[in-house]
Amino acid sequence: MKVKFWGTRGSIPTPISPLAIEDKVRRALRGAVGLDLSDEAAVERYIQRLPVTVRQTVGGNTACVAVRAGSQLLILDAGTGIRVLAYDLMKIEFGQGQGTADILISHTHWDHIQGWPFFVPAFVPGNRLTFSSPHSNLEAILAGQQDETYFPVPLDDMRADLRFNRIPAETWTRLGEVCVYPLQMPHPGENYGYRIEYDDQVLVYASDSEYQHMSPASTQAYVDFFRDADLLIFDAQYTLNDALDKADWGHSSPLMGAEFAHRAGVKRLALFHHDPLADDDAIYGALRQAETYISKRGCSCQVLVAREGLEVAW
Fold first, then answer.
1. How far, in Å, CA of 21 to CA of 57, rounded?
2. Whether residue 48 sits in one domain with residue 187
3. For 199-240, what is each residue's pLDDT tens digit?
4. Number of folded domains in the chain?
5. What does DSSP say about strands 302-305 and 173-175: parallel, antiparallel, or unpaired?
6. Terminal Cα distance for the chain, rounded
7. Which of 177, 210, 227, 229 has the most CB atoms lying inside 10 A of its own CB?
8. Are 261 and 297 in contact (CB under 8 A)?
């Protein structure tokens, strides 16, 4: 499998502010004294040595992840990241109306569907886009989002072949080359995580989940769902204190993700659905906390910050 993150923020799109960019430039320049700026190789080496919080950003688009499993393309959620993915897909067969993709929607809160009206391949005749989820009214919800009250172009104007396939929860379903198991997750409204298996490889997508009790009895179903995942994409929006203070808001923390990764024998944990109030320093600080926790538990799981453009393959 090959996974690429196109949107990793939660709740609302969060473009980096002009002041934040200025601060990154200032921090980069402080260490550049004596650097020969005419030497492009030296400049590149210097950039690569900068802290990741200075040279990059996790991005501001909301949830969207693309998955390649063999020849199959799966798209997980349709936050604003799907708009950027769209232009990448238009460079290949989707630009000629010959593209095929399966789209799995976790739930229909705005940050997980708001990019869909801007998904250019959906306007190209010949492309086939199949939504699969346990949601019974997904087509109606997407059409409602494109009602003229909110958006000028209705769902019916999307000329691609759009299909809505309702699949059962807590049951394995084969979608093309992959097998998918949806599990309802603890979050306000109807929300599903997806366990995706392909050729003995396992990806688990568990965005927007709140675990108010971490006892073995109350979490065993989730541990089993995450078991032996090659990559677990986990809702880590809040700090542990925030998660405790914001009960019933529907989100988890990096430390809870680390604990689950330990219990479930996960190989890689991607911290995802970042708080719009968290800057890059805060997000990577939470990464270090999760890494320390994992190490103390004697777990070999690799912890990653999900950021726009990050690719993970195995």
1. 10
2. no
3. 999 999 999 988 877 778 778 999 999 999 999 999 999 877
4. 2
5. unpaired
6. 6
7. 229
8. no
